[in-house]
Amino acid sequence: MNLKALILAGLEINSVRKDIEIRYIVDGNTCPLKIRNDMGVKLYLEVRRNEPGIGMYPLCIDTIEKMVGEIHNFDCSSGEIICVEELNATNYITDSNSTNVKTGQLYKDKGTLIDVMTKYKIKNNFNFRVKRSDKKRKKSDVFKVRYFNSEHTCPMRDRILTKVQATIEFISGVTAPKLFNHKQIHTLQDVIEDIRAIYGVEISYQQVWRAKERALKMLKGKPSEGYKQMPRYMWMLNNVHPNSYIRMQKMENNQFMYLFIALRLLIRRFDYCKSVVVVDDAHLGGAYKGTFVSASTLDGAGCILPLTYGVVDTENDCS
């Protein structure tokens, strides 16, 4: 307590509003040692006694507001005070769809801040540019809005309104949440109408198509990565459904060719169905063409029972 009182007085810290934490770094120890009690003070003095240099093992003082606020990190060796933020994680804005911007807000990272500002720009019909970007990064990823002026008095504003554009990255960010549910069909025209209704911006069909492709890549990854996961998928099916018939055929250059899957559960159920099988196919779009094939029948209740399914190149005798 005596050491704390000396530090509070020496740094002119208001002890009513703030508390302090005392730490020091010892060579060979990557984690700063915290002085928590009298024993910690004695240990620190013993360490310093063996190193008479004044710059050895400097104290590092963290001042924390007793409510919520700023920390001033003071290093006795250099005399510098570094300002960092120590705020409750519940105060961070993590939703990039937020368009309410005001002074004092905290954003979890730079990406979230950029997304919010982009949506704010489009919703309020103006453009913006980055005046200055500081590449010096501190340990925290948190960004804080220190100054914000919501009044736009530029005489050129009416001309700028017609030139506000929604980028592909922005459209894909708005579209991605609606593509999570594969059962819900969200067409390109739906995206155009959503952007028009929410942000009042007109976008082209080509922009929406490219944005939707980027959104699908964000959610599902690239199609080529999906094909690389095929052996793992087959291994998992065999473990969940033992004694199934699962086969994959590849070309000489190790590229995917055919996939055939007949699960044991469906094979057994076919023993109780009529020997009538309906085969159907659906052509696959995207970067990698192909045909999804399936065979089904009717069970005793008159419901469709899938029997087998797979992916081939085209409908031909070999496949």
Topology:
Blueprint: H1 2-10, E1 18-24, E2 33-35, H2 38-49, E3 59-65, E4 69-75, E5 80-86, E6 92-93, E7 106-107, H3 110-123, E8 143-144, H4 157-161, H5 168-175, H6 188-199, H7 205-220, H8 223-228, H9 230-240, E9 245-250, E10 256-262, H10 264-270, E11 278-284, E12 290-298, E13 304-312
Parallel strand pairs: 6-7
Antiparallel strand pairs: 1-2, 1-3, 3-4, 4-5, 7-8, 9-10, 10-13, 11-12, 12-13
Helix pairs in contact: 5-7, 6-7
Keywords for this entry:
five-stranded antiparallel sheet; 319 residues; 10 helices; alpha+beta; single chain
Gist of the model:
This is Transposase. It comes from Solanum commersonii. The protein is an alpha+beta fold and 319 residues long.
Provide an overview of this structure.
This is Transposase. There is one protein chain. The chain has 319 residues and is of the alpha+beta class. It is built from 10 helices and 13 strands. The strands form 3 sheets. The chain has a 5-stranded antiparallel sheet. Helix 5 (168-175) packs across helix 7 (205-220) and helix 6 packs across helix 7 (205-220). The longest helix has 16 residues, at 205-220.
Q: Unreliable stretches, pLDDT < 50, 5 or more residues?
A: 68-89, 156-163
Global structural class: alpha+beta
Major sheet: arrangement of strands: 2-1-3-4-5
Count of distinct strands: 13
The gross shape turns out to be: elongated
**How would you sum up the major sheet?**
5 strands, antiparallel
